[in-house]
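TEACHING EXERCISE
Course module: macromolecular assemblies
Task: Read the component lines below, then compare them to the predicted structure of the full complex.
Student: A.B.
Group: 4
Components provided:
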Amino acid sequence: MANSKFEYVKNFEQPDNLLPNTWIVVRIDGRGFTKFSNKYGFEKPNDRRALDLMNAAARAVMSELPEITIAYGISDEYSFVFHKSCALFERRSNKLVTTIVSTFTAYYIHLWSTYFPDTPLSPPLPSFDGRAVCYPSVQNLRDYMSWRQVDCHINNLYNTTFWALIQQGDMGALEAEEMLKGTYAAHKNEILFSRFSINYNNEPEIYKKGSVVFRDYELVDPGTHNAATEADNLAEPVLHSKNQTENDKKHRAKARIVIEHLDIIKDEFWDRRPWLLSNKPGKVPKET
Amino acid sequence: MANSKFEYVKNFEQPDNLLPNTWIVVRIDGRGFTKFSNKYGFEKPNDRRALDLMNAAARAVMSELPEITIAYGISDEYSFVFHKSCALFERRSNKLVTTIVSTFTAYYIHLWSTYFPDTPLSPPLPSFDGRAVCYPSVQNLRDYMSWRQVDCHINNLYNTTFWALIQQGDMGALEAEEMLKGTYAAHKNEILFSRFSINYNNEPEIYKKGSVVFRDYELVDPGTHNAATEADNLAEPVLHSKNQTENDKKHRAKARIVIEHLDIIKDEFWDRRPWLLSNKPGKVPKET
Amino acid sequence: MANSKFEYVKNFEQPDNLLPNTWIVVRIDGRGFTKFSNKYGFEKPNDRRALDLMNAAARAVMSELPEITIAYGISDEYSFVFHKSCALFERRSNKLVTTIVSTFTAYYIHLWSTYFPDTPLSPPLPSFDGRAVCYPSVQNLRDYMSWRQVDCHINNLYNTTFWALIQQGDMGALEAEEMLKGTYAAHKNEILFSRFSINYNNEPEIYKKGSVVFRDYELVDPGTHNAATEADNLAEPVLHSKNQTENDKKHRAKARIVIEHLDIIKDEFWDRRPWLLSNKPGKVPKET
Amino acid sequence: MANSKFEYVKNFEQPDNLLPNTWIVVRIDGRGFTKFSNKYGFEKPNDRRALDLMNAAARAVMSELPEITIAYGISDEYSFVFHKSCALFERRSNKLVTTIVSTFTAYYIHLWSTYFPDTPLSPPLPSFDGRAVCYPSVQNLRDYMSWRQVDCHINNLYNTTFWALIQQGDMGALEAEEMLKGTYAAHKNEILFSRFSINYNNEPEIYKKGSVVFRDYELVDPGTHNAATEADNLAEPVLHSKNQTENDKKHRAKARIVIEHLDIIKDEFWDRRPWLLSNKPGKVPKET
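Instructor-supplied answer key:
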């Protein structure tokens, strides 16, 4: 029985390969996580278990997809970055996005009981949506990352103050909202300190900075590499010899994937980790 | 602290709304399921537990997304159909695809232990990729569904014969492959019957037909409705009154989602279930 | 000298094939025609020479591209329709749009002196932009055509009244604009009739209805064909035998391309000319 | 009379804005120019009048669209480059491509009689198709330009030899083709020189190098500017003050548009004309 009569329907599928030589950022977001976090009693303003679960899922995604060079997460969202020379799945947008969304979801569900041992999941289950965006230059990519980290800071300062007013200041949600309307960062810092003796600077880094996930190699001295300019000058996918590619893969597999809470807006983070922009594995640190 | 300096990066996100007035099919596929099925010892040619798990995940997706009108699954793939008038997520491709992929994955992982109680999951976890395709006419949509069901039949007849040769005929894989090369359906039926006394027609319907998932209403008499022509004539999203929409929603929520193994190529399946093409809920059957 | 070092840049070109089995409408618009029409002293509210030039260019486009089934023009815009089964240029959007825009422009410039013999063109020259839009069903296509013809009527009634107030009523532009603000069709008809003894119904059809361009065959009796339903049911490009295609081509080449000013909103226009929706050449009328 | 009933059809138009911060190249090609050039008796291998007409049309396009920074033409094709910061027409692909194609065609037809005074145009008229491609980095853009110039050289050397064999060597087309099959540049140079005493290096630059069109400012010393790196570092459209933009416009309007036949593969061309990559008008040369 031939299938040819119906096979013409395959022609309706449209190609979705992303523009070559651009950085691909896949961002995923929790669907309806306000409701979800209430159902499972997430602590406010930040639930450490929930963040650790997000980070564990992100680390697993990076481990299964070594083509991802760096990831950054805040709250219920995570951004995964593919190097501009990446050719995974021929850069097909749907393949890249759904593979990340599905892998992330799988680990989020699978690892849930590790981080929430006393509250088993029940339907409706948590899920994530996602999208891919192309950024032509290193500056665009870094501005994207900076945008997310600034958002993390803005939201966390707001939420920390908001929930302090409610939890320690006995305010209602509307009252707290009203009070914070139009305030600047300085005002919120002042409220936290004067009313609740909270020094915002001493809050945990994971809440203030979010989480950045990457492969760990030996830091280099600032000024010794120029990975950003090299990356911008890179015109097409570098075609290594087969051996070189295999070597790189083994190198990457050996590298430890770390989760840090660092400033990714300033140059230093990128200058000292040239492998993030060059896509060439760094030097594996000595045993520690 | 304003975020305006970096916010320009939002402009790089490109719209992906699918063409209005077309049927949207989101098909998802298991990633690397050959390896995965070996790891967990899936039975060959079909593992009933694995299919039941796929079906349970598909039913959960339909339950969470009432905008899906029908779904069809074979092996490690599932197709979900949105009516041509569907306006969910403004028809943004990424939102539709990732929501389905993520929800499906979540239930697949969550329900795994129900169907495989003795073999707990371990990394790397199963995952799925997906894509959305638009079909302009009812005929295109039905041809797509027929294409998948013909594929189901072709693959299942081949696999049933192939594994009979191996499991009962003591052949090696290469030998069996060689023997089946270029054979027609009649040959395979003959091999099954003469060598192994297997009448392919008596094989379970779920293996021969795949699984079709939909909301169950009272069947209508063929010829009394013309949902296909009505659907093709429909030019734009029908704007019901708010009340009507709410009523439809309640109606749908009440309807039982069933999983059947029927012929979806012939007209009868569609003629007797006009709600699948009209998107108007049918009559809820009396208690049985 | 091999060109291979630079040829990778070809990979940046992205496919733009339009969704199969949908009607393709290419609409072109004059760029900056208000200024242009002032420069060449176009008569207001309608310049017959300018419309005749537009129509002559459209006829030439249809003659060079027999795959176009119908075209409709008003003012400085023209819409060209490709049948849903059309496979010209593999349905690549850029090829279809630029070929029409370029051919139209070529004839507009070339024929200018025929219609404006006393006012030679000088830079900046007139030009047109264009875009392709897909419509899945016959109803969508007809609604598109109706939309343009309703626009023609609305604009022409307004412009006829506006310019009567100025040219015969000695009003200034602002005064006329103010007077017409918020008026319904009936008011404008009334103004034309009572003030200027103009019966709008007696205005030339070309101004009231626009221009529709198509191949002329023998009209059929309404109700004898059902081209719309047949077209909607058509699922994929019909694959004729080579001979059939050649025959169709010759048939089309023989057919006279006519320019009419008819109502294309009502069913009659389409019912009596089934070849417009079926894409099958009709019967060539006897010599007249 | 309201138009609302049909206006929903506007929703079928899909956005086509090109990725920000990328160089946009619009390339246009003559449609069926082999046939066209035979019809009008173009000289082989190069017809100077035809090239001059192409160049005149390209210059007119650049004059009407000051956002174009550079153009490059060979044979019946022309590439127009918009700076990566260009925001013309909100970077809508169709608007950019059709405007260029239409304007180019208009001038080609209009100026025809200047360059071919003795052979008036007759239907079918010459026309052009076009497409837009995005290039993320300066290197990609320059590689695109180099690709075209290398093509020019390869084609011209081949055509020069091919037509010498035919016109001066009395060969037939097939025989000449056969003779040149698989030959390298050196062979062709040798054939030209030994058989026909033609030194290919002495052929006119316009044939060997093609034509590059740009605004003329004072050349700068190589090494004093780094426009390429600056351009790559540029992350978003530069928002000048309104005054600055107006000044730039006036500056550009004053600049002479020149047509040269230079090597655009080597660095020197770009190093000495930093305004091509920086998009900042250079210094207008003193009267000469």
